Amino acid sequence: QVQLVESGGGSVEAGGSLRLSCAASGYTGRSYCMGWFRQAPGKEREGVATIYTGGSRTYYTDPVKGRFTISQDNAKNTVYLQMNSLKPEDTAMYYCAASIYDCYSGIPSTLFHYWGQGTQVTVSS
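Request: output the structure for the sequence above.
Response:
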């Protein structure tokens, strides 16, 4: 059973930066598609970025391209989301998730089997 624990959320002003971390345990030695998702109040959950633990392919949703970077440290079983130039519209609960499938652009949240508890990101104008 894969367990995911997010950290690093908080409150920042617009233009600021945050780095989210997702520490994973219970890996079975296989590769996973690791993803960051977010959900703002009253809105649907949105995929933000994904990375494949068996390689380096990454995918981003258009609103965060050029501002967010997903990365991984396989030795630590940790995935990061560096968020720069934050905007008020980035305010949401951010979730880390893992899928047994390979990553591809637009992979839906329904294909992710394991989820963290979420970490809140609030960006003020």
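The mean pLDDT is 94.
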